[in-house]
Amino acid sequence: MCSDTDSNKESPYKEILSPISSLKGVGKVITRKFWKRGVYTVYDLLFVLPRSYQDRREFIPIHEIKSGDTALIKGKIMEIRRVRLRYRTVLEMLIGNEHEIISARWIGASLYLYRFKKEDNIILFGRFRASPKKMLETYHPEIIEDGDEYEIGRLLPVYPEIEGISQRRIRRIMMDAINRFIQNLEDPLPTKIREARRLSELGAAIKEVHFPSESRLEDLRIRRSPAQRRLIFDEFFMLQLTLAIKRSKTSRKKGIAFGVQGVQELYRFLPFKLTGSQANVIHEIITDMSRPFPMNRLLQGDVGCGKTVVALMAAWLAVWNGYQVAFMAPTQLLAEQHYLSTLELTRKMNLKVALLTSGMSSFADGVRDGVKKGDIDILIGTHALIQESVKFHRLGLAIIDEQHRFGVAQRAILKQKGISPDVLTMTATPIPRTLGLTLYGDLDISVIEELPPGRKPIQTKLFHERDRGKVYKILREEIEKGRQVYMVYPLIEESEKMDLKDATQMAEKIRGIFPDLHIALIHGKVPLDQREGIMEEFKEGAIDILVSTTVIEVGINIINATLMVIENAERFGLSQIHQLRGRVGRSAYPSKCLLLASYRKTGEARKRLRIIEKTTDGFKIAEEDLAIRGPGEFLGERQSGFYQFRVANIMRDAEILSEARKEAFGLVEYDPELAYRTYNLLRQMFRGSQRGMDEFVDVA
Ligand code: ADP
Ligand code: MG
Prior knowledge:
The protein is of the alpha/beta class. It has 25 helices and 22 strands. β21, α20 and β22 form a beta-alpha-beta unit.
């Protein structure tokens, strides 16, 4: 992190960046072990933070210990012997005084027979429980010997396991690092911010987190001590600084100022009246587009709320101004659907729309040619759009649907096909606010909050596996009403093979149960043209039940399909189920979603699934999901690694996050380049921290 050009030779940072081997007791072997954990310098080591603490502040009198307690005790060895326990010989010490005695046992520690003897005084730290004979016993307690005095009389840090280095060893090394180097640790956080937010000074915070002297144990355990708060703040602050700088760069960049005169004209082409929410969002987008900076906006809205039409209006505006539009979706089916609805909505306009996916080699050349010449106005497609061979004549707007399904780099490539084009990204995954601030802190966000009128809320009901019969009965009723059904195996992607097998077997089983119905199966291994054929038949009503894996995309829009059965629902995140069920409930017909799951009455799975049964609010569901499953669910593959915060936790520390955000954005507004001298160190750290960040934040 220090190869910076402007890193100052005299900086005390040089000291703290000494190799780990400059610490006492760190030879070649230990050094390698640290390297394996990414710890190279003293600085790195200081940020290996305790994962918990042991309370070794005082000796607990033996008679005060209760079963289950962990305690530090002092006593006399009343007896030391080998005892035979089932098939093992263990070493046992009886320790205490004439009133109280506990038993301490070690398996395979006969050596102690030579090191200790009856009448010796001994200090132990261990977890005690009542033995069948009512005597308190402890297995493998730690013996604190002479020279280990610093291991007692304090709250002792417990570090993450580092293979081959004992806790005691890590503590000694850490102690040396702190004693010798902590005064060289300069605080990069501007004093003004530190004082305004009442944060401890960095060196003091680090020291206190490793070897607490003022913190309360209860606070430490829930990561609420002032020292921890400081470190949490820092983690968020660095991230928010990245976002703030990124955003400030974009907002100072020259972009396209689209003309918006007569934009009202466009509304004429709409086949329906926009919802209030859609109108607001379009207004926000148009305002962005009219500004001479690149738009960078995220459009959020539950499945079926009508994002596509909003995106198309933006597209029209771009085309109207003489620019081209790229509209990228994560899958073939979605791209095709967008293509079809775009054709439909632009029928009365004089626009050229084309589709480009990797499955269509024969037309592809013609399409690419048209795009390059500028004959094609709107190019819709999959990842195929970011191939090198795709060149735009004049790309003005990039629209990315289900944006989290693309990596940062992929999004960036699309953008780079134009000169600072406006970018509109869309997602149907409602992002809880706290997470949004972290993930999309550099974007402007628009939210569509209502569904088009006339939609009946989807009724969701949870069934236990053993009530499968009831589900079949409802399914039959629905089909008799003339409706169609999806049966989904929402299995996780890694197990694609299993996925296939389950859906295939299920299709067979369903055919056996409903021999009179038309049942089709669709999954990732069905060739594309066949898949399209099946979807087409389903759309036309020729298929009653469509059994599928998750290949049927979230955005798919088939009005007559009103029932969805989700198998193995317990395996899924709530947000995911919520999105899946969004495929039904797309019309005025009442729709249902039946969840089939195996669960125990009191289990977590049932509790979770009850939430989705009760609420249809995507944001609320997302919050619950975040609380239960953590942020992984909301992040693309690439982004999740980033969330290995050392101490910070987006949910628990939401308040600190918002403080850090305010300070970071405030600072960047004041000094966008961190150019002032006071920010020298911060600037260096910031640059260092950017390594790996470009994976996470769009490269501008
Ligand atoms: P999503 O936000 O999931 O992408 P879509 O854009 O696919 O939603 O819209 C879902 C359906 O609702 C489409 O059939 C679309 O034509 C229809 N729709 C969108 N907006 C309205 C509206 N304001 N009034 C009526 N129907 C609408
Ligand atoms: Mg959509």
